Amino acid sequence: MSQTPSRLLIACFCAAWCRTCDDYAHVVTSLKDQYAPFADVVWVDIEDHAEVLDEVDVENFPTLLVSDRHQVYFWGTLLPHASTVTQLIDRVLSGKIQGVTDTAITQLDRRLRVTL
User: Fold this and answer.
1) Residues 34-61: b if buried by 16+ CB within 10 A, e if exposed
2) Which CATH number fits the domain that encloses residue 49?
3) What domain range is 110 assigned to?
4) Deepest of 36, 57, 89, 104, by most Cβ within 10 A of its Cβ?
5) pLDDT for 38-78, tens place per residue?
């Protein structure tokens, strides 16, 4: 089991034209309120912030990045169900999820932190 993470970054990668992302907007808003003491929650439009993505392709929407300053805990697509995202974040906060080791995703996390 991993260590309890420091303050999280929860980034939702979406596109303005994506209708599924529209459904996710209220979930992101509720996450901002629910996890304010533990996380910074951001909405990243892939077209407005293409430079952050660099060579990383977002193939499905919405794609979520959950990380702290030391490692990425999750990178992937999640349907807009608040309970699924909440379970994921709670598992990360309790130290029950191992970090992602993909170098491109780790570099994406670093670029995102500098940009936003």
Assistant:
1) ebeebbebbbbebeebeebbeebebeeb
2) 3.40.30.10
3) 8-115
4) 89
5) 999 999 998 888 888 888 888 888 899 999 988 999 999 98
